[in-house]
DNA sequence: CTGCAAAAGATTGTTGACAATAAACAGTAA
DNA sequence: TTACTGTTTATTGTCAACAATCTTTTGCAG
């Protein structure tokens, strides 16, 4: 199989509108997301360059972007490593996420459209199906999309990019709460309450529910917000 | 004057513990902070490389980091430009900052030390002096340090890095609220209330005060939170 | 066998050169 | 003049080679 990003046959026809660097960054993000690159792994520049069919320059540039977004960390003269998230850091990220999601809810509530409410409700009912059947691998991506949608609908562009970044970072932390018994159902009932509050255009209520929703996950793993961990 | 980062005379003696890339990124951040590079300016790689006495590689890597943190944006084949922040985006950043500072206050309140309270009070009283004398150029950096200190004392590392990033980004937006008549005094009275709430270890009150403090600036420029701008 | 030191190898840091693209300019036709 | 087109120039995108640094292996003394 050919792993190179650029198909040479197509190279002639495509007018490239994107730099290799950004293509590579997305590819690396994907590899980390999917688990092809695991926390703690070192990214060998030569190997990656060969695998993706480019030189080391773009690889290095992509890594600097990933560093800033917290997905990797760089040690001088040693290389770049997929970050490992300690319990302590994961707990911190939960706290941040709670605040960001609360803000998203507060911003969205007063201006949400009927169409958006309908879309969120659709997701909730799909998640209900998945929860009934105990299909975590169906529930999980829906859950992600649900939260993403609320942030996106909030209309605050930077909030979306920061949230995405924090979410990716949290993904490096493997322990999940959703696979605890009955957790999907409880989580989804919270989703329903959130959508109800949004539909009622109640910003304060939505914000509170979003915050609680995130912090509940935190509590299951680490105890209440602000608790020192590890 | 010599603008190069690396003094060749020192180069031999220092065992470099940091890559050029990170030095350059800090230098560029400084140049943007100080206004040597203004919003909308293009960063000419050759010129920067010559000025800093390095090659283009590290420059490009540094720029990718800055891109991710929102200080510059890159257009393929055209270059990297210091970002210009629209009113709309500035308003969005205020909303985010309010949420982040509220979180910082909430986290810090229950665990603040006497020493930290004293340090914050010292800053407040220094700001009071500056406000009395109408010295904005003294007040402003103290104001920055005050807010930074609270986030730092909160102990959430990622919160600090995100806050710093958001703060730098906001700095690209030139209009300030503090130079409005009487604004320094009002602002500082809010600072005092925040420190009092912190000293009382009242997380909710602190969070609310921090949020209001930031949103008041937003309102002066753009109207209340969530208001569409531009 | 263990511990240390030096050499060999692998990997990152940095550079200068070349290719691809966009901007600036000049010349021509309407 | 203005619009268009081809040419020149400036700048970015990419690459491959070299230098600096770290890691591993090898060899030797105890």
Could you please describe the fold and organization of this structure?
The structure is a homodimer of 230-residue chains. Chain A has 230 residues and is mostly helical. Chain A has two domains: 8-82, Arc Repressor Mutant, subunit A; 87-222, Up-down Bundle (Four Helix Bundle (Hemerythrin (Met), subunit A)), CATH 1.20.120.530. Chain A is 67% helix and 4% strand. Chain A has ten helices and three strands; from the N terminus they run H-H-E-H-H-E-E-H-H-H-H-H-H. Chain A has helices at 8-11, 20-34, 45-52, 56-68, 87-108, 114-133, 136-154, 157-171, 183-199, 203-222; strands at residues 42-43, 72-75, 79-82. Chain A has a three-stranded antiparallel sheet with strand order 1-3-2. In chain A, strand 2 (72-75) and strand 3 (79-82) form a beta hairpin. In chain A, helix 7 packs antiparallel against helix 8 (157-171) and helix 9 runs antiparallel to helix 10. The N and C termini of chain A lie far apart (44 Å). At the A-B interface, helix 4, helix 5 and helix 8 of A face helix 4, helix 5 and helix 8 of B. The structure holds a DNA duplex (30 and 30 nucleotides).
Backbone shape of chain A: globular
CATH homologous superfamily title of the largest domain in chain A: GntR ligand-binding domain-like
Number of strands of chain A: 3
Order of helices and strands of chain A: HHEHHEEHHHHHH
Measured distance between first and last alpha carbons of chain A: 44 Å
Q: What would you say the CATH architecture of the largest domain in chain A is?
A: Up-down Bundle
Oligomerization status of the protein chains: homodimer
The computed structural class of chain A is mainly alpha
Number of domains of chain A: 2
If you consult CATH, what is the topology of the largest domain in chain A?
Answer: Four Helix Bundle (Hemerythrin (Met), subunit A)
| Helix share, percent of chain A | 55-70%
Mean pLDDT of chain A: 90
Name of the CATH first level of the largest domain in chain A: Mainly Alpha
Uncertain runs of chain A are 1-15
């Amino acid at each position: 199989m050919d792993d190179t990003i650029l198909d040479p046959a197509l190279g002639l026809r495509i007018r490239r509108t994107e730099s290799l660097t950004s293509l590579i960054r997305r590819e690396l993000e994907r590899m980390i997301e999917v688990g092809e690159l695991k926390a703690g792994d070192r990214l060998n520049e030569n190997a990656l360059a060969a695998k993706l069919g480019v030189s080391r320059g773009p690889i290095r540039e992509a890594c600097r972007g990933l560093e800033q977004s917290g997905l990797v960390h760089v040690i001088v003269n040693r290389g770049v490593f997929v970050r490992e998230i300690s319990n302590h850091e994961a707990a911190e990220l939960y706290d941040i996420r709670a605040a960001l999601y609360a803000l998203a809810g507060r911003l969205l509530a007063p201006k949400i459209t009927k169409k958006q409410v309908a879309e969120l409700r659709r997701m909730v009912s799909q998640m209900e199906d998945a929860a009934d059947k105990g299909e975590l691998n169906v529930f999980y991506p829906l859950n992600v999309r649900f939260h993403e949608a609320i942030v996106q609908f909030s209309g605050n562009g930077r909030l979306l990019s920061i949230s995405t970044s924090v979410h990716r970072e949290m993904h490096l932390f493997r322990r999940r709460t959703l696979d605890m018994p009955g957790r999907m159902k409880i989580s989804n009932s919270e989703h329903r309450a959130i959508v109800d509050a949004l539909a009622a255009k109640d910003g304060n209520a939505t914000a509170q529910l979003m915050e609680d929703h995130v912090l509940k996950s935190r509590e299951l793993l680490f105890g209440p917000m602000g608790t020192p961990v590890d």
